[in-house]
Amino acid sequence: MLQSRSSTFKMMQNEVQADRQISSFPKPYRSDATPYSGIDFDPYVKESCCSSTSLVAGLTIAKVIILGDVAVGKTSLVNRFCHEIFDSNYKATIGVDFEVEQFNILKVPFNLQIWDTAGQERFKSIASSYYRRAHAVIITFDMTNAISLSHCYEWKREAMLVNNKYVHIFLVGTKRDILTSPKAFSEMESRGMKVAAELGAELWCVSSRTGERVTEMFHRVAALTFNSTFPRGDERMKQVALGGNLMPFKNPSKMSHQKCVSCT
Ligand SMILES: Nc1nc2c(ncn2[C@@H]2O[C@H](COP(=O)(O)OP(=O)(O)OP(=O)(O)O)[C@@H](O)[C@H]2O)c(=O)[nH]1
Questions:
Q1: Residue nearest to atom 6 of ligand 1 (CA)
Q2: 3-state DSSP call for residue 102?
Q3: Is the peptide bond before 231 cis (omega within 30 degrees of 0)?
Q4: Interacting residues of 260 by C-beta distance below 8 A, sequence separation 6+
Q5: How far apart are CA 88 and CA 75, in angstroms?
Q6: How far does residue 94's CA lie from ligand 1's centre (Å)?
Q7: 142 CA to middle of ligand 1, Å?
Q8: Which helix (H) or strand (E) holds 113?
């Protein structure tokens, strides 16, 4: 039997960490380094989520893929956000890993399925088979390694071979803690901004070692994908009629899947 939305939401909110509650639209890293100019959730989305009388039927899980050269810090980014840990030892990702992180956005449960792919060439064919049907693509580069930034065009090209133009693209510079000189940081940030503009991506500069800007970046990914995938009008009614994605969402609390090379 379908529970009332308010009691269902109370249950769900209890399960979601306090820092995964998003009640206002997260800001970009820099307003001049993003193609996503909206400053708030779509009015329809806000109204649907805040109405206490209507059922919310939305996409409850969005797929995010993280790409980039070997050892730029993809796994560290995921580990910092999902587990609040950082390991200075390098362990190569074999194929892909994934994590599922639960959010409440405008009090509606929403999940990010975050796919961490291998940067090593020998695992590329396995990893690339997981690129399809993404809602967001996070292309990473190491802020201390300009070559890794120049390779981001190729990472985007590969992601777009199997995704449509509506996917959100983020360009994320990692290891900002190593660039202790403000001049070196600002030079790399400017180069990142130029590449982000050419890729049609939103730029972030983060550190998994210190955690700087990591949570903010993933909140932005969650909010933008939630906002854009929320069904509107007829589409929403069609989902209700088909019984698809009706609340309550049945996903178990937190899941992870280590070093998987054989599932989709
Ligand atoms: N100082 C510093 N080191 C970092 C940061 N992020 C990652 N590293 C280090 O960079 C190395 C590579 O990090 P990983 O996260 O394993 O890189 P990856 O991109 O997942 O590597 P592959 O899976 O093989 O492609 C490790 O030694 C990390 O500790 C950071 O923000 N700051």
A1: 73
A2: strand
A3: no
A4: 95, 96, 97, 98
A5: 11
A6: 14
A7: 9
A8: strand 108-117
Q: Which residues line ligand 1 (CB under 6 A)?
A: 68, 70-76, 87-90, 92-93, 118-120, 174-175, 177-178, 207-209
How does the average pLDDT of the chain come out, rounded? 84
pTM assigned to the model? 0.85
Peptide bond into 248 cis (omega under 30): yes
pLDDT digit string (tens) for 202-243?
Answer: 999 999 999 999 999 999 999 999 999 887 765 555 554 444
Answer for the pair 62, 223: CB distance below 8 angstroms, yes or no: no
Give me the interface pTM, i.e. the ipTM.
Answer: 0.99
Ligand 1 atom at shortest distance from the alpha carbon of 207 = 31
Amino acid at 228: S
What would you report as the CA-atom Rg of the chain, rounded to the nearest whole angstrom?
A: 18
Nearest of 246, 9, 225 to residue 108 by alpha carbon: 9
Cα gap 120→134, rounded to integer Å: 21
